[in-house]
Amino acid sequence: YEISACLVGSEMCIRDSVSLALAILAFFSIWSIIGLAGFHSYLICLGRTTYEELKNIWDSPRDSPYYRGCCGNLAHALCPPSYPSALDFRKIISQNDDHYSV
């Protein structure tokens, strides 16, 4: 492309400008998502919350009571332990007056 080929107001110049603007918008959108994903992966590896990281509560990652090592923290975040449910879905519900009780 020659710069002089893009005449102001021509259809090709407008189309190329819109394409360039969309490409820049997509680049910054994806860059911010990748940045946030990287930062939160870093936090998971350290076993910290965003608040703990920003306020620098722990001097060392090993000071945190939730630190299990990088692999342990990743395993806990991706495959958390299952806790028993507080709801009993098989219990029969009886109808009393205008409200239901369990």
Set out the fold topology.
Blueprint: H1 11-46, H2 50-55, H3 70-78, E1 94-96, E2 99-101
Antiparallel strand pairs: 1-2
Helix pairs in contact: 1-3
Number of helices: 3
Radius of gyration: 27 Å
- End-to-end gap: 74 Å
> Structural class, from helix and strand content?
mainly alpha
Your description of this structure?
The protein is mainly alpha-helical. The chain has three helices and two strands, in the order H-H-H-E-E. The protein has helices spanning 11-46, 50-55, 70-78; strands at 94-96, 99-101. Strand 1 and strand 2 (99-101) form a beta hairpin. The longest helix has 36 residues, at 11-46. It is flat and about 70 Å long. 3% of the residues are buried.
State the gist of this model.
With 102 residues, the protein is mainly alpha-helical.
Top keywords for this entry?
102 residues; mainly alpha; two-stranded antiparallel ribbon; 3 helices
